[in-house]
Specification:
Elements lengths: L7 H6 L9 H9 L1 E6 L4 E3 L7 E7 L2 E6 L5 E7 L4 E2 L1 H6 L6 E4 L3 E7 H10 L1 H27 L2 H11 L11 E4 L4 H7 L4 H13 L4 E3 L2 E4 L2 H6 L3
Antiparallel strand pairs: 1-8, 2-7, 3-6, 3-8, 4-5, 4-7, 9-11, 10-11
Helix pairs in contact: 4-5, 7-8
């Protein structure tokens, strides 16, 4: 039995990118939107495939990655519910420079380039939001490069753990974070080998800064972890 249809316009209206659009504008974008039910482990597109619009994740996870000349995979980003990807290449009219693969059973919306461009021509506010989204992605990439270049592996892992729950930004109480995907994929996202990532988790556990059980990481003293220099 096929999955039940969602009300595309209602979901689009609740996303930050489209939240301020009027109902007729939302309906126009919904008319150019396709619903994609993708099982876990399926490749959504490969590097070099044409980009015909942007994707939005309703539920599930999508991994953006590429394969190095040595044959290893480098994870660029993990896209979760409410997030989008493909905007920049859509504007540049370029093929995808990464591969996209689902990490869980996922429901995605694909908004066609034609639908987006039509609204951009008629709505300056929507154009500003699209620019803001692309700018956030660029800022994230620059932050990643800075982290890889200036921060140790331990600092990268600590920063990642503390970022997993925005509520913990100024927290002082113990907290638990759950890695969004496998340790190997998180390691690649942090530009670490799986072995190095596991070693860092072990060292932090031995220092009493965290405890690890599967994908759950308990942080008993957030300020102490935040100030740890390794």
């Amino acid at each position: 039995m096929p999955p039940p249809k969602i009300k595309t316009s209602a979901f689009l209206a609740n996303l930050p990118l489209f939240k301020e659009l009027a109902p007729p504008e939302i309906d126009r974008i919904a008319a150019g939107t396709a619903e994609l039910h993708i099982p876990r482990g399926e490749i959504l597109f490969n590097k070099g495939a044409p980009c015909t619009g942007l994707h939005l994740v309703i539920y599930g996870q999508v991994k953006l990655s590429f394969v190095t000349p040595q044959g290893s995979e480098k994870v660029i980003e993990i896209i979760g519910p409410g997030m989008s990807f493909g905007e920049a290449l859509m504007f540049m009219d370029r093929p995808y420079i990464v591969m996209a693969q689902t990490l869980a059973d996922s429901l995605l919306l694909h908004v066609s380039k034609q639908a987006v461009f039509h609204e951009l021509e008629h709505n300056p506010g929507f154009a500003k939001k699209m620019l803001a989204g692309v700018s956030r992605r660029l800022h994230g990439i620059i932050s990643d490069v800075e982290s890889y270049s200036l921060h140790s592996g331990t600092q990268r892992v600590i920063g990642y753990l503390l970022r997993q729950d925005e509520d913990q930004a100024g927290a002082t109480e113990p907290c638990k974070v759950t890695l969004p995907t496998s340790k190997a994929i998180v390691a690649s996202r942090l530009n670490l080998t799986p072995e190095h990532f596991s070693r860092i988790l072990h060292d932090l556990s031995a220092a009493g800064l965290i405890s690890v059980e599967g994908r759950d990481v308990v942080i008993p003293d957030v300020p102490r972890l935040r100030s740890y220099s390794g």
